[in-house]
Amino acid sequence: MVAVAASWIGTGLTLPYYGAETFALHALGGSGLDEGAVTTLAESVRMGAAQATLFAAGLLLVAVGASAAAVAIARSRLLAGWAGIPMAVGFALFIPQFYVDAPLRIGHGVLIGFGCAVVALGVLRSQSPRSTMTGA
Known about the structure:
Blueprint: H1 2-29, H2 35-47, H3 49-76, H4 85-92, H5 102-126, H6 130-134
Helix pairs in contact: 1-2, 1-3, 3-4, 4-5
């Protein structure tokens, strides 16, 4: 329950930042304002105190949710005990990855993709086909 609640709340706090950035930056790019004004306004959209606080809180909650999911995976014994660790580490490193160069950011994305794929494949393998359960 902690994993689900933290992940949903974290996602809810993070999405407005990405939405504002996506739509506001698009509008600013087509506004016809000079480059200096666009740069100033873009930075206020991206790094305002409220935006940064909600974004950071959201990403921290997503990391808490992924970590709680990793603990639940290990305790469930349905998947390998380590299966949730790459995913949890990837989400825990989400904020620090903003401060590194492109190759490490790409590596971070690969880590999250790998971690999520391990969990997804583990869940798929742990599910029995319904047709064998019903005798059909």
